[in-house]
What we know:
homodimer; mainly alpha; Tetracycline Repressor, domain 2; DNA-binding
Amino acid sequence: MTMQAKGPTRGRKSEASRAQILDAAARLLRDQGYGAMTLRQIAERADIKAGSVYYHFASKDEILDAVLARGLHVVIEAVEGRLAALPAGAGHLERIAAAVAAHLEALLAHGDYTSAGIRTFGQVPEASRQKDERLREEYIALWQHLLQQAQAAGEIRADLDTSVLRALLLGSLNWTVEWYDPARQPVETVATQTVDILFRGIAAPPMDARAKPGAR
Amino acid sequence: MTMQAKGPTRGRKSEASRAQILDAAARLLRDQGYGAMTLRQIAERADIKAGSVYYHFASKDEILDAVLARGLHVVIEAVEGRLAALPAGAGHLERIAAAVAAHLEALLAHGDYTSAGIRTFGQVPEASRQKDERLREEYIALWQHLLQQAQAAGEIRADLDTSVLRALLLGSLNWTVEWYDPARQPVETVATQTVDILFRGIAAPPMDARAKPGAR
DNA sequence: CAATTTACCTAACTAACGTTAGATTGAAAA
DNA sequence: TTTTCAATCTAACGTTAGTTAGGTAAATTG
């Protein structure tokens, strides 16, 4: 009577299997897409038989939903956490730089889940897509505010359309899952260069501005 | 005897059906991914029966290859054509701007084919992926040269890693297929803004630089 | 120890897949 | 008119998909 009624008692073994199933599904989803990912493949990688998957999940779609939700959550929490940890007096550009770094780091650290979501969003059944649409919209709104406030404060140029800017920026960030190779450079380097290009642009400064060094 | 031996005579009807099959396949590939795209769906949209598809293509993979190749070709040819049409004395930044615009315009004008390739590259069978890998590599090399020469000429900053820059740039361009809405703004506007942000960055110029107007 | 429950397996079902062989149609060629 | 052939259909083949029902070993509970 000490234990409350909260459904079947799931032990540590179950959690481990569940994790293995999700890991396998995330990888397969990333590499093959939703339609080509089979429960038998998932089961094989999780070291169980296909039928046993249904002890942990009610359907293939439920596995999909879990993978997508985790890929989204991990990035959102990283960015929100990083922003919250910033000193109160942080400038707007500083906040944007922190958000870029956090987004990139979370994205590439949990590559299978995040890139599964990025690649297959748009190819997934309507029902699954709508499930975390609100979360996704909130995340987009977060970036939108970040940019708008920076613009209102005069820290980014007034002539930019922040909607287009946000889309371009998030695009270049999300696309890193397609080319980033941890053996070539640490994530931090990519983040630093991205912010640098984003803030200052790629064009070399004109001659007369180049003479005075160390403006920073 | 007036006709040479060159296999079965394919008429206009056949070409029309072939085009319908490819259009349907491109859209389905984009929306569902390779594994979920079925020949019966393709056939239905092309207004024929599933078995008849095999009169035009030997296999599902062959359809896939045709869609992917077309998506790639259309972009490459647009960019190379635009660059070739540039006056001989065009500056490096001017060349980059032209390439960005051409890439974006081709990408978004042939949305189904290009975004099918972008979304499903990496989820497609090895054999199909390798088929136009050389073309893809050549296209990447084109951009790499474009950026490197601009850097060598001193038109883009010397402290940038052109490999990372190229990846980030192509990422933000390719991602436009996920968010671009022709009802909101013309492609040219997006291209212009992308180039503007790319060259000058988003940060507002410092106060002392803002006084002198019309530096261009 | 007996009873229960967890976590899995086995074996099967139906549905749908890519693919194929053999008719069938309609228009052009002879 | 007869022949021919491009273009399609019909009907099926073997395979594999997601899913389910019923069984089982091991651990937990009483």
